[in-house]
Specification:
The chain is α/β, with parallel strands linked by helices. The chain is 31% helix and 33% strand. The strands form five sheets. Strands 2-1-3-6-7 form a five-stranded parallel β-sheet, with helices on both faces. InterPro entries: CheY-like_superfamily (IPR011006), LytR-like (IPR046947), LytTR_DNA-bd_dom (IPR007492), Sig_transdc_resp-reg_receiver (IPR001789).
């Protein structure tokens, strides 16, 4: 069975690949962006089974389906609410809710193997509209505990979010630096992809906070923000193309 993974977060993609290989399956390729996925489909045979994240670094996965219209069985991976998940079921598309549980992964594959056949056609326009409605659930503010006090930080105030020494920090445009109790992996799907971009495994930047962008070594880019200063704000090489596309939106 030929399996393809489309997932822009490398740790999540690697974890899913390990889980699938642990079950005895071979993953043909792991792709990260809409652009890369479209090119792959144009030069390769379609997979039997496709694991597809909804929100990718340079767009949403529906853009791939609109251009390629694959006949592959699709299992979406998503972090969205039950209303969205019901839509998957009603359209005969299975899903895995992040973080992916081993039992759910095995059940999804077993379902595919039992009913292996071309995927029933679904209304892509209606499905995409449902997804776009869920974008209203992106976080607009976070509550941070500081000693015995609580501070509310809006997403507009955030310049960047970074991890350091196993901690996660929010840095604001008022030069506030706050320890936060969520990981970058947990925070990424809560933030609007229009305003925030995860440039590497350790940092997320806010669009309006970017002051300058410089070419860095090994075909990477270095980000300079208006207030936060760090030598670690480097766009990883595999995300440079997606980052440039994000800037042009």
């Amino acid at each position: 069975m030929k399996i393809l993974i489309i997932e822009d977060e490398l740790p999540s993609a690697r974890l899913l690949r390990r889980k699938l290989e642990g079950l005895g399956y071979t993953v043909s390729a792991t792709l990260q962006t809409v652009e890369e996925s479209i090119e792959w489909f144009r030069s390769n045979d379609e997979p039997d089974l496709l694991f597809m994240d909804i929100q990718l670094a340079d767009g949403i996965s529906f853009e791939i389906l609109e251009q390629i219209k694959p006949s592959s069985a699709i299992i979406f991976t998503t972090a969205y609410d039950e209303y969205m998940l019901r839509a998957f079921k009603q359209n005969s598309i299975d899903y895995l809710l992040k973080p992916i549980e081993d039992e759910e992964l095995e059940n999804a594959i077993e379902k595919f193997l039992q009913f292996r056949r071309p995927v029933s056609p679904f209304d892509l326009a209606t499905f995409e509209a449902l997804f776009k409605n869920t974008t209203q659930t992106f976080k607009e503010r976070f509550t941070i505990r500081i000693g015995q006090s609580l501070k509310v930080v809006t997403t507009q105030q955030i310049e960047c979010i970074y991890s350091e020494n196993k901690g996660t920090y929010l840095y604001t445009n008022e030069n506030g630096n706050y320890l936060f109790d969520q990981t970058l992996d947990a925070l990424t799907p809560q933030l609007s992809p229009k305003d925030f971009f995860r440039i590497n495994r350790s940092a997320i930047v806010q669009f309006d906070a970017i002051k300058n962008i410089a070419v860095h070594s090994n075909a990477r880019l270095k980000i300079y923000l208006k207030h936060y200063e760090s030598d670690e704000l480097i766009v990883s090489r595999e995300k440079v193309v997606a980052f440039k596309n994000w800037l042009d939106k």
